[in-house]
Input
Amino acid sequence: MRVALFGGSFDPPHRGHVALARLARERFALDRILVAPVGAQPLKPDSAPASFEDRLAMTQLAFAAEPGVEISLLDAPRADARLNYTVDTLETLRRELSPDDSLFCILGADSLLTIRKWHRPADLLLACDFIVGARPGFELDDAEAALPREIQARTIPTELPATRLLELTSPDGRRSRLYLLTDLNEDISATEIRAALRGGEAAEKVLAPEVLEYIRAHRLY
Output
């Protein structure tokens, strides 16, 4: 089985999130995509305007029509109130899978650019293969420059369409792959969406109608 974790704040979940999940599923023949809203975002501990419950509900609405997508509580708020770290979530998920299963992690380009600030970034990038959705103008060189210094990267060929590939290697010989999807043309920012909603601007083009209705009904943002 081919399984991918797609974590994030999803505050709110928008068209770009759905497009990335759909493209990853199609290109990598993924059997399951676990979309996991994060309980406590380590890099944004005090910045989530919407509660976890609201973000979970909106994510369920946004991905309801997507085959192969499951909304997961793997990254839900922890009982001990500790922060959620993606490397821990991937390690938990790996233990639940069969040794024959393939595990991927889906990221947007903006998230990759901050990867050095993440918890145990080298271990994270070597925990599984990564599928990164490019944004307009984002290149493989940008991805390589964002990697932790202890990770070595080299470009290798791939037969996948509109995809560029880096092989990542650690000093102790661990390896993983980072796939950059170059045909994802969604340049959408959740921060900008929240600002637009606060200003009364229309968001119909970037949010599913059900998500927008939920936001209005619950007076979010």
